[in-house]
Amino acid sequence: MAVKDNPRPGGRSARVQASVHKAVRELLAAMSRAEVTIPLIAGRAGVTPSTIYRRWGDLQALLADVAVERLRPDMQPVDAGSGKADLQAWAEQYAEEMSSGPGREMIRDVLAAQAGANACKCCEYTRQQIVVIAERAKARGERFPDVDRVMDQLVAPIMYRILFGDVPDTARVSDLVARVMNTAD
Questions:
Q1: pLDDT tens figures, 56-76
Q2: Which of 127, 134, 129, 126 lies closest to 183, judged by CA?
Q3: What burial class does residue 124 get, using C-beta atoms within 10 Å of its C-beta: 0-12 exposed, 13-18 middle, 19+ buried?
Q4: Which residue in 180, 129, 182, 133 sits closest to 157, CA to CA?
């Protein structure tokens, strides 16, 4: 079941979502994931379990929704003076955050949900960050690779390593950045 869009921003629906999300974050900080249940979340959030089931459908969809919100960038990419330096700084931070214990848990939650909408949101958040870097570089008169190319040749290998291998180290990230920057138009 997909999470329904909030038809009334700031209304009761938004308050319910905020309190449920807060309850999930607090419970995950206090106990193992296996111990977290919808009745526990509902009790902490001050709503009925049926409210959670009606909005999210199941625990996995709720965990994915919370993870997506936590994965949303809360700031613009660092301006390090050049497109390559901006991309390098962003990629190092991205690899570090996504490969951390909490980062991996959030990725697993997003990918475990039945609907792919949450994964698409995460992809779009990442894409938006690359667009900011690309536009900044182009405004400086620098060449910068196509955003899709950066997604395919930098972000995808980083995420693949996080999911199926080792944490991509700084040298690996630097190599990926150098390779994709060499493809700039």
A1: 999 988 998 898 888 888 899
A2: 134
A3: exposed
A4: 180
